[in-house]
Amino acid sequence: MPGAGPQETHNPPKGWGKAPLALILVLAVLIAAFFLAYALILIL
């Protein structure tokens, strides 16, 4: 059903999707690095 759901006119499907994805990836890398450093500190 292509007509199901609200019409998205204020939300362009392309052009803005890369920034939130990059932000999430950077946040995930920072969290992973923090836990890695924390584990290394606990081991040593």
Descriptive report:
By secondary structure, this protein is mostly helical. Helices cover 59% and strands 0% of the residues. The protein contains one helix and no strands. The protein has one helix at residues 18-43. The longest helix has 26 residues, at 18-43. It starts with 17 loop residues before the first helix and ends with a helix. The model has no long low-confidence stretch (mean pLDDT 81).
Fold topology:
Blueprint: H1 18-43
Tell me the structural class. Answer: mainly alpha
Rg over CA atoms, rounded to whole Å, is 19 Å
Number of strands: 0
- The helix content is 55-70%
Distance between the termini: 58 Å
Element pattern in H and E = H
Short summary:
By secondary structure, the protein is mainly alpha-helical.
Features:
mainly alpha; rod-shaped; 1 helix; 44 residues; single chain
